[in-house]
Predict the structure.
Amino acid sequence: MEQFRERQIKQYLQEEPRPNYDAMWTVIEQEASKRKLEQTPNSLGRSRKRWISAAVMASCFLIIGVPVFASVALNWDGLSGGKSITAALNQGYGQQYDKQALSEGVTMGLHGVVADDKKMKLLVSMDPDPTGTVFDAIEFEHIKITDASGKSVLLQGYLQYDEQSGKLLGIYEAPNELKGRKQYVLSAENLVFYQYAEVPLKSIPQTGQTILTDTSRYPSLDIESVQRSKGQFIVRYNVKTTEANAEHWDPHLILKTNKGGTDQGVRTILPHEGSGLLIQQEFELSEQEWTEAEFDFSYLREVSRVKGSWQIDFEADGKKAAEVLLSRKLLNNAEFEHITGKALQKLIITPLEIRIAYLEDQSMERMKEGSVWYDTVRLEVDGKEIEGVFYLLGDGPNNYQHVYQFSSPEWYKDWSDASLKLILKDPVVTKRDKSKNWVELHQPNKEKQYVEMKVEDFYVKFTYYMDGKDLVVESESDDPHFKGISQTMLRVAGEDVYPKMAPSEPNSSGTKVERYENLNISETLELNPGFYRYFDSARDIEIPLIETKS
């Protein structure tokens, strides 16, 4: 079964996802403990019943008309990346097709192939389930391309129902290894349809509780914590499962109010070293509404499948796409590097996308100045702005390349004299400075004790107490611009001591709870906020991209 992409998982989990923020947040959280990043790609298509757009590469695109090459009025523009692909095809890059294959009375169509220096993308259509199954998600059980030598590559992508044509439309991609023209076979097997199952739970979630779900795939939920903070109830729970890719079927809680409403809150999959799937959901409601609420456990279950096998021969040409690449080195800018901690490297423009590559200073010394994440990334092209995202290229932490990525606008064709400006706004700064921000703690005991510290311009309240042999430290701030503590640290008899890793949801500003296990409290204890995050509008920046030819 084809895998989810991490960004699409987040799309399932939040109505207004920040997939780019999650990538950076994961880097920061892992660096706080191991300074490593692990990512897992994943993907499922969504339904005609309650479709949620599965955006992959960019957060928004400009509007164009139905592509002129399409033999049927198929709305490729409704798919993430569809506009740039159809624009590239209309400008003569890639191959336009109207190929079909029939299996079990269901037709697959291949309508176009575009390749650039990184990816090959295919426009695919499918007839819907002839039985008229209503579905929430859909996927191929297997889909791949095979070249003339027999080498196969699995495709990543998703299908979306198009009401105008009544078809399922999808964009599938694979790494591009083309050096010229090459023959391929597109092969797909079994179209699988899913609906959300909703299992009523017998109780309201409470800290330490185990709730049975009476399902084989996800038999129980271990409620790790339920917190009340700033008008929200924050529920963190472990979904017990033996499945290798447990997130694939989108397990989550649904809150039902006594007024008939439903709420899935803001959902995040958290890094987790143990078994199961660690999820956090935040519900905004009053204490009375919480006590009167009911909960369901929801996940995707298979409801129908078309047992078919489809094959389409096609030819792809990577040479033409490679010829139109614009690649320019970017000049160093001392002010930009000081404010952002990033050194611009190269501008790359392909028929499908624009990439701005940069080096991120991830040293602990830089953390004293702050690692800056930008929620808003834009590129101004001759006075017009397009929105972009943060992206990681490469096949592992040691080979990752940091880029800002934009979908190539269909209205721009000649880049030789383009005026480009990078616009970065809404910065969130992550800092750690062991040379300051220390406070000595009174001898901990079972009673809660409090200490307040000024961190940057924000007052942070720390609550600490003993739970058996463990020291528990809670941290919070009332200032909405303070985004929270990622990981505190202690100094015990001159030695640095760190708590058990407790990942936070990226946009969470509630109470952080950490546990120092088996701590020796007979020595002097000093507390440091460690890694902390805050909003800093002074780091908004705009920079012209002055290039020199490579």
Summary: The helical segments are 6-13, 19-33, 82-90, 287-292, 319-323, 334-340, 364-369. The longest helix spans residues 19-33. Residues 1-43, 46-73 have pLDDT under 50 and may be disordered.
